[in-house]
Amino acid sequence: MATTISSNVTRPEPQALKRAIDALAARFGNRLVTSQAVREQHAHTTTWLPTQPPDAVVMAQETADIQDVVRICSANRVPVIAFGTGTSLEGQVNAPAGGVCIDLRDMNKVLEVHAEDLDCVIQPGVTRKALNEHLRDQGLFFPIDPGADASLGGMTSTRASGTNAVRYGTMRENVLALKVVRGDGEIITTGTRAKKSSAGYDLTHLFVGAEGTLGIISELTIRLRGIPDTIAAAACSFETVAGACQATILAIQTGIPVARIELLNAAQVKACNSYSKLSLPETPLLLLEFHGSEVEVAEQSKNFRDIAAECGGGDFTWTTKPEDRTKLWQARHDAYWSVKALRPGDSIGVVATDVCVPISRLADCVTETEDDLKRLNLLSPIVGHVGDGNFHCSLLCDVNNKDEMARGEEFMHRLVERAQSMDGTCTGEHGIGQGKQKYLKAELGPEALDAMRALKHALDPQNIFNPGKIVPAA
Amino acid sequence: MATTISSNVTRPEPQALKRAIDALAARFGNRLVTSQAVREQHAHTTTWLPTQPPDAVVMAQETADIQDVVRICSANRVPVIAFGTGTSLEGQVNAPAGGVCIDLRDMNKVLEVHAEDLDCVIQPGVTRKALNEHLRDQGLFFPIDPGADASLGGMTSTRASGTNAVRYGTMRENVLALKVVRGDGEIITTGTRAKKSSAGYDLTHLFVGAEGTLGIISELTIRLRGIPDTIAAAACSFETVAGACQATILAIQTGIPVARIELLNAAQVKACNSYSKLSLPETPLLLLEFHGSEVEVAEQSKNFRDIAAECGGGDFTWTTKPEDRTKLWQARHDAYWSVKALRPGDSIGVVATDVCVPISRLADCVTETEDDLKRLNLLSPIVGHVGDGNFHCSLLCDVNNKDEMARGEEFMHRLVERAQSMDGTCTGEHGIGQGKQKYLKAELGPEALDAMRALKHALDPQNIFNPGKIVPAA
To answer: Could A448 and B296 be called an inter-chain contact, meaning their C-beta atoms sit closer than 8 Å?
Structure first.
C-alpha cells in the first residue's frame, strides 16, 4: 500500500516501486544505480532539511531516456525527480516520497548556436561555465551567474539569477522556449525562437521556476548577449548601508546601466579582509561592474562616482584592466569561503537564505536584519544583489547546539516576515523547494495557492513530478 | 437550453441570462447598458471577423464591481468579457456566445507611484498616454508603446509591445504583479513589488497574454523607467531589406542599446511620401531612436552610422532636437493613415496582422512576403519592429470584392505559414483572439494545446471568462 507522508506526498506501493525499478533496470542496464552512496549524493541539500534520497538514479543520455523513465514511473505512480548539479538550496532535489531521480548531467550538448539571433538551443545538463566556454570564440555569453556552476535546466527550474540580473534579467527574461516531457512521456513545446510572441498562454514561464513539479525539461532555447567591448570594475565604501542603497537607487533611476552592483555589509567585509588578506574599510562596500564601449564605461563610472560622493561614499576606485578588476572583486569572489573560515568546525553549518524587497526598503531591511542578528547573538554576513533589492544571509550555526539552532530558525523566520511586510518576497532566487513552502500563503494569499494547486493538478494529475515541492499540502 | 456554438463556446440559457441581467440591473442601475449601439461598440474588431456584441455592458468603477459582475455571471453560467479601449486586433473583445462585457475605462486611477523603486500600481483602465502624462513630472515613463492609446489592462492581456520593445521588453518583461478576479469573485494576488522572485509558479505571466480567458485583471503593478536625459532620432535608407536587416543584426550583436529600430519597406515609404509630402528615397528605410546621456547617444549614433555604411546604407541623418526628431519620424507616425489614404473608399478595409521570426530570417521573410503580394496582386505596406524580428502587414482589401478577399485570406495564411516555417510565431504582439486560433497547433504542437486547455479548465472550469478565445475547440 502507498504510504501518505503528508497530504501531498505519498510513497509509492512497494510492489509498484519494484516493478518500476525492474523495468528501468531492463531498459537502462548499469545506467540505473541504486547504491546508497549515489542515492544520497542525489539528495544533497544545503539547508537544515534532512537528506531524503531517491530509491534509484537513472543517468539519462538523451530525450528518449527521460521519456522512458517518465513513462515507466507514471505507469507505476512512482515519483520522478530531475537532477542537474545538485546546487539548489531549498531541498529541491530531495525525494521525500522516494522515487526515481533522473540525473541529466550527461545531457550536456550545445545543440545549436544562432549568433545572429543571439540565442542557442541546449540540453538541460549544460552548465553555465561550459556554455560560456563554448560561446566565447563567437564573442557571445550567457549572462546569468548564480554563483554555483549550475546546470541550465536547474537554473531554469529554480528561476535563478545572480549578480548580473540587474542588467540582463533573470532566467525569467532569458529563456525563450522549452521542451518539457509530460506525464505520458510526450513532449510539450512551449515556444519558438521568435524573441517575442503573443501566441497563447505563456507555457514557457509556467515551467521556468516550477522546480520540476510540472514535467521534466529536455531542451532549452535561451537568449545570449555579445561579450561587451570593455568591462570596468569599481569599488566604493560607504559609512552606512543606507548610503550604499541610496547610491544604488540613484544609479538605477538615472539610467546608468550597471551590469553588477553588489553590497557587502560590514560583517562580510571584515570576513573578506581576514580571509583574503585585504585592507578594506570595515564598513558597507559596493562592488560594481560596467559593460559597454570604452567611452560608455568611462562615463558610467564617472557618473556613479558623482552619485557615490553625494551619498557619503568614500574613495571610488575603478579600472578596466582584467587583473585589477579581479583584485577589486576579490572580496566578492571569496565571500562564501570567507564566511566558512569565520568559524571552522565539523559541526558548523552555513545556511544560505535569500529574500528580495523593493529597493526603497532595502536599507531598512538589511539594517533591521543586522540588528536582529545582534539581538539573537548570531553570525551571518550579508551579501546583496542590491540593484534588484535581493540579499543573502549566510548564517553560521553549530548544528549540535540546540539553543543556537533555535535562534537560527527564529532569525530566518523573522527575516522572511520582515521582507514580506515590506512588500517583498520570501525568495528572490533560491526558490521554494521544501524550505519555504510555509511562507507562500502569507506572501500571496490562499487564492494564489489555490491557483498553484489547480495548475499542478492540471499538468500533473498523478502528482509524480517532484512531489512535495513548492505547493504546500492543503 | 444553452446553445453550443462550437465545442468551446456555448450561449447561456435564455432564462439564466435574463436572471443575470436582472441581477446586474438591480446592482448597477444605469451602469448596466443593453442598448444595441453600446453593445456593438464593445464588440468592435479590426479584422475580417464579424462583430459579435455582448448581451449587456457594465461600466465598472471599482474592484467590487468586477467581483459582483463575475459572481452574478458565474452563478448563471453567463460569459464575462473584459473591455479596455477596444483596440485589440484579433477579435479579443468579441462575444461569440453573448454574455456581459465589463467596461473598465472608468477604473483609470494611478493608485501608487514608487519613484525610487521604478514601479507603480494602477487600475486596469489607465491608458498608456494618461499614465505617461501622470508620470512625466517625476521624470518617469512607461516604455511600452503599441501604437494605440490602449489600456494597461488590455495591453497586459494581449502581451502587447511595440516600437520600444527592442530595448525595454514587452508587457511580459514589465508587469511585476497582478490582482485578478477569479470565477467565484475572490481575488488572486500573483506577486509582490519585489523586482524578482522565485516564489512558486509564475502566476503573473500566466495572466499576461491570457486575453481575459482566465480571470479579470483588477489591478496591476508595472515597472517604470527614468526618462532618458537625451533622445536622438536617426534615419537611414537602404538599397535592400536585407541590408537594413543586416545593419540591425550587427547593431544588436555589438550591443548598441537602440531604443527603437523600425523598418519601413519601399511600399510604405512611398505611401508616406505621398501622404506626408516627404521626399524620402523610395527604398527600405530604417528609423532609429537612441536613449541615454548626451555622450552615449552620440556614440550610439556614430557606431550605427558605421554599421549602416557597411551594409549599404545611404545618407545617415541624426538629431537630438525635439522638432527635428519629430520630422525625421514623421513617416512612421503617419504610417497607418498613409496606408488608408492609398486607397480611399467605404468598402476598403485595412487589416493589420503581425508575425515575428528570428532576426536572421527577417530579411527572407519580408522579401518573400513582398513577392507574395506581387504574385497575388495585393497592396500591403510593411512596417517592422525589426530589432525583435516582428513585422506588420497593413493589407488593403475591398470587402465587396470576393476574389480580392479570397486572395487576401490566402496571403494572410501564407504569411503565417512562412513565419512558422522560419521558427517564428503567428503573432508577435497582436495575440490569438479568434483570428489566429487555427495556427496555434502548427506552431506549438498538440501537446501545447492540451496544456493550454488543461490550464483554462483548471482556472476557469465553467468556461465563463471570454469563451472562444485563444484555445481552439478540441
So the answer is: no
Domains of chain B with bracketed CATH: 3-105 (3.30.43.10), 110-226 (3.30.465.10), 230-335 (3.30.70.2190), 343-442 (3.30.70.2740)
- CB of A191 less than 8 A from some CB of B: yes
Closest Cα in chain A to B119: A358
At residue B267, what is the residue type? A
Measured between beta carbons, the chain A residues lying within 8 angstroms of B199 are: 425-427, 431-432, 436, 439-440, 443-444
State pLDDT tens for residues A79-109: 999 999 999 999 999 999 999 999 999 999 9
pLDDT digits 0-9 by tens, A275-288 = 999 999 999 999 99
Q: Exposed (0-12), middle (13-18) or buried (19+): which is B36, by Cβ within 10 Å? A: exposed
Strands B80-83, B100-103: pairing kind: parallel
Q: Return contacts of A161-164, CB within 8 angstroms, 24+ apart.
A: A161/A385, A161/A388, A161/A390, A161/A428, A161/A429, A161/B196, A162/A385, A162/A429, A163/A260, A163/A262, A163/A289, A163/A332, A163/A385, A164/A259, A164/A260
Q: Is A42 helix (H, G, I), strand (E, B) or coil?
A: coil
Among all residues of chain A, which has the CA nearest to that of B245?
A: A116
* Chain B residue numbers touching A254 (CB-CB < 8 A): 226, 229
The CA distance from A357 to A122, in Å, is 33
Interface test with B, best of A92, A181, A198 (most B CBs within 10 A): A198
* Residues of B (307-326) whose Cβ lies below 8 Å from A: none
Residue in A193, A295, A458 nearest the CB of B455: A458
Residues whose CB falls within 8 Å of the CB of residue A39, separated by 6 or more in sequence, listed in order: A33, A53, A54, A55, A56, A57, A101
Question: With contact defined as beta carbons under 8 Å apart, do B156 and B208 qualify?
Answer: yes
Q: Quick one: pLDDT at residue A236?
A: 97
pLDDT at position A44 is: 76
DSSP for B190-247?
A: ---S-S---SSS-HHHHHTTSTTSS-EEEEEEEE-EEPPSEEEEEEEEESSHHHHHHH
In contact, A354 and A390? CB cutoff 8 Å: yes
DSSP letter for B137, please: G
Closest to B88 (Cα-Cα) out of B142, B157, B162: B157
Question: What gap in Å lies between CA B304 and CA A232, rounded to an integer?
Answer: 23
User: Each residue of A335-378: pLDDT tens digit?
Assistant: 999 999 999 998 999 999 999 999 999 999 999 999 999 999 99
Segment A201-230 mean pLDDT:
97
Could you report the predicted ipTM of this complex, rounded to two decimals? 0.97
Judge whether B455 is closer than 8 Å to chain A, CB to CB: yes
The answer to whether A189 and B441 have CB atoms below 8 angstroms apart is no
The CB density around residue B49, as the number of other CB atoms within 10 Å, is 16
Mean pLDDT of chain A, nearest integer: 95
Annotate A388-408 with DSSP letters as a single string. GTEEEEEEEEETT-HHHHHHH
* A439 contacts in chain B (CB < 8 Å): 199
